[in-house]
Amino acid sequence: MSVVLGLVVPGLPHPLLAPQASSHWAAIRAAYDRAARLVQAAIEQQGADLLVLYSTQWVSVIGHQVQADPEPVWTHVDPEFHALGSMPYRLRMDAPYAHAYAAAARERGLSCRTVAYPGFPIDTGTVVALSLLDPQRRLAATTTSCNMYADRGETVVLGKAARDAIEAGGRRAIVVAVTSLSARQHVRPVEPEDDHIASPKDEEWNRKLLEILGEGRLEDVSQLARTVAHQAHADSKMKAFWWLSAVMDQGNRLRGEVLGYGPVWGTGAAVVALTPAQTAQGQHEFDEDSVERYRGDHEVLDSSPETPPGPPASAPPVPPAPAPAPRPAAPAKGPAKGIDVAAAPRPVGAYPHARRVGELLYLSGIGPRDPKDDSIPGGPIRDAEGKPLAYDIKAQTRACIENVRRVLEGSGSSLDRVLDVTAFLVDMDRDFAGYNEVYAEFFASVGATRTTLAVRALPTPIAVELKIIASAGPV
Amino acid sequence: MANQSGKIVAGFLAPHPPHLVYAENPPQNEPRSEGGWEVLRWGYQRVRDSLAALDFDTIIVHSPHWKTTTGTHVLALPRFASLSVDPIFPNLFRYRYDLQVDVELARAIIEEGRRDGLVVQPMENPDFRVDYGTITSCHLARPQWDKPIVGLSSSRSAFYFSNEVGQEEMLALGRATRRAVEQSGRRVVLLASNSLSHRHFTAEPAVPEDMSAERPYSFNQYQWDMHVIELMRQGRCAQLLDEMPDFIEQATSECKDGSLTWMLGALEVPDWPATVHAYGTVIGTGNAVVEWRAP
């Protein structure tokens, strides 16, 4: 189990700097202290060795940023709540993990970089969360920025990248979303003891979300994000829940516990613990698509007409402009890049999973290897000494087609847009019938053309490989 | 303080992309560049020339990157010195600053604002790190750092209520600022640290100063910027304020943070032509360097 504990915590400094000033802030501090005990238990009982944070208070523009300074040191002052005092810190960051995380994000198509600059202004939320959850700095950590333009797809993919790096490193992580529920603050001073949720509508939604989180239904909360952001003053459109659910495998199979909830300067501050479990809620109430690879607007620097730069918006009230000069021809584009899909088995040579030309996708030969561990579903066809083994052609064919699906979906297409299939079998006489039966399950209604060839061998001990041409546009 | 002898001698739209400091390679900034964004920097050179010819005591700067929700906050200790690292572009801006604050004028602005019912409060924590917007605009306008400043935060009312409410609050803060200046006996320069259109690209060229990648984010943003600048050039700031909520919505304008509106309020909504020193884009956002010399 790569993620042993998930936490939702608020990022305003009051529970750290002034818990005594208000019973509300003291209650959140008490909840934070309970969460800290869960962190200690996860270290001692489950071998947790890493804290991974996403903070809505660290805003980024150029993709996402991941903190990789091994020991950031500063005396931080919150720009709004400077009167509460200063926050001296000496943090412990896991630079190798941060680099792996950023690399995994780039692998999934995101713009992502690490930062490691002396004096970098680590945000209040990160400082508060690390100070209260792990005051002894037993765990190395890292923290992630919240891109101001990121949509659900981008943030979900970022969460998956965090998980990729956790799994690839064999880590046992505690993942933390530093976010308020509602984020509306008081615009006029209030007495600390009179603190309250700034809006009744926010209060209503906060309680609804906590009810769902208390049932461990994190992915349901993630999929409610747009609705909540539309109806209440959600913190950063609830992006932190997109990230947290993705890094916790986008499921509802969690045990949820609300450790505390209350107002902090008008915002809805909640401390929630989410523990992986097998017996809790399993089904999603909602059904938004998952996204494996980001294909958004980070290529906007390419000024070719095929990539219009921005959303349509109204023009200012100016008189009609003279007819524009003819648009100059777009500069010649460089060579197209191949597409690699993190969710598909790694190539065994110097080739991408796919390459797009116009609306057409050309896939490299795709075999049945399991992307997680390179094992072969249905078994290999020979052992290490070359001795033949029994294998299941149906299982291999099914796994092969699932890998094709992963590459297609990671490239902006899908199985139902396959145009042409070339299939390679190492034993036509033995395997054709089983292969043909499974093939029909997936492709009978697609209408793709197909050629099946017998070959002497394939590069790994597999019995079947598929070569695909598909449409990346409509069919 | 003297009475009724102070004056705002000029106001500048002085946007704060840290790229411009990075491109200039001043000794205070650690990263080195090969230039870039020259047109905007040439415009700032004209601002420096204007200020060199002006007799003034203090710079008041309103920055969108000191974001506050409970009203406006004002730097209110005599000196701040530290390292400013831009959290968004740390690769470009890591700047050592050492600045003086005109605390007397800062407190006068607080008092005048409160007199009008605004929430205005002093920032008196000595560990406070001044935001990079303030640092950038001040450096670009007056790199000598030889004049004390008053730093004003950006109140988030426009984000909590509406653009119209935010504008009204900023106009009121501008009027309060003017009264405080007049009562102070100071000769004061205003810096409104706002970009115009403000949708960024979310990717950066491998070399940040690669100007072949620099252009407006969209034609719509460019049209709006030109329209707004034309209103400034024609001295039609009342119309500009009327259209400001639409500009903010439709061009994702950073003027939502209130710096320009505050300054126009302090200048009593100029009806005389402004001097446009430069326009250019920085990672797709529209930036104009504009001067209103007081008549």
Structure description:
The complex is a heterodimer of chains A (475) and B (295). Chain A has 475 residues and is an alpha/beta fold. Chain A is built from eleven helices and 16 strands. Chain A has a six-stranded mixed sheet, with helices on both faces. A six-stranded mixed sheet of chain A has the order 11-12-13-16-14-15, with helices on one face. Mean pLDDT of chain A is 89; it is low at 298-313 and 318-336. With 295 residues, chain B is α/β, with parallel strands linked by helices. Chain B has one domain (7-293): Protocatechuate 4,5-dioxygenase, Chain B, CATH 3.40.830. Chain B has helices spanning 18-24, 38-52, 103-115, 132-141, 157-160, 163-184, 219-233, 237-250, 259-266, and strands spanning 7-13, 58-68, 72-75, 79-85, 94-100, 120-123, 149-155, 187-192, 275-282, 285-293. Chain B has a six-stranded mixed sheet, sandwiched between helices. In chain B, helix 3 crosses helix 6 and helix 6 crosses helix 9 (259-266). Chain B is globular. The chains are: A alpha/beta (475), B alpha/beta (295). At the A-B interface, strand 2 of A face strand 2, helix 7 and helix 8 of B.
